[in-house]
Write a structure and sequence with these properties.
It is a single chain. The chain has about 170 residues and is mostly helical. It has two domains: about 45 residues; about 100 residues, Cytochrome c-like domain (Cytochrome Bc1 Complex, Chain D, domain 2). About 45% of the residues lie in helices and about 0% in strands. It contains seven helices and no strands. Helix 1 packs antiparallel against helix 2, helix 3 packs across helix 7 and helix 5 packs across helix 7. It is globular.
Length: about 170
């Protein structure tokens, strides 16, 4: 963007010289151009209000973005183990084994932000969520939508069957 503004400034300066037979107005045009460049650059860096994120669904709300319901799917724990490979970088299923993310052992039925010794984000800790199958199904679709401010950077599983399979795997562990 700055390059485009600089090119426009040079073009304006060149046009100003052509407009004056003796070039006397060229410095004034250059000064004006410099001021315009500064204004344009400042305006470009501060332009437009930020759009606030949509509010998180209520702790007991399990509506998904796609509108599908967990009850419409039957999870397969064996397939879920394969899908969980994506999660293993940050999570373990063994009790007491925290990694970048908390242990997911016995996560179904647990309140969010409750594993002692794990540094949860305030957003997660204060979410009021209990991890039911339905809430996990919603969360795994797009975690940042359900808990804005979570430290979990995973984008989510758009495939509802994969979410159901991971939940079946988590329930089995």
């Amino acid at each position: 963007m700055a390059l485009g503004v600089a090119v426009a400034a040079l073009a304006l300066a060149a046009c100003s010289k052509k407009a004056s037979d003796d070039g006397a107005s060229a410095p004034a045009a250059t000064e004006t151009t410099a001021a315009t460049t500064t204004t344009t650059t400042t305006a470009a860096t501060t332009a437009g209000p930020t759009v606030p994120a949509a509010p998180a669904p209520a702790a007991d709300n399990t509506d998904t973005i796609s509108g599908v319901k967990y009850a419409s799917y039957t999870g397969d724990a064996t397939k879920g183990a394969d899908v969980f490979v994506t999660c293993k970088t940050c999570h373990a299923i063994e009790a007491g084994v925290n990694k970048i993310g908390p242990s997911l052992h016995d996560v179904v039925g647990r309140k969010a932000g409750q594993i002692p010794g794990f540094a949860y984000s305030p957003a997660n800790k204060n979410s009021g969520i209990t991890w039911t199958e339905d809430k996990l199904f919603q969360y795994l679709e797009k975690p940042q939508r359900v808990v804005p401010g979570t430290k979990m950077t995973f984008a989510g599983f758009t495939d509802p069957q994969k979410r159901a399979d991971v939940i079946a795997y988590l329930k089995a562990n």
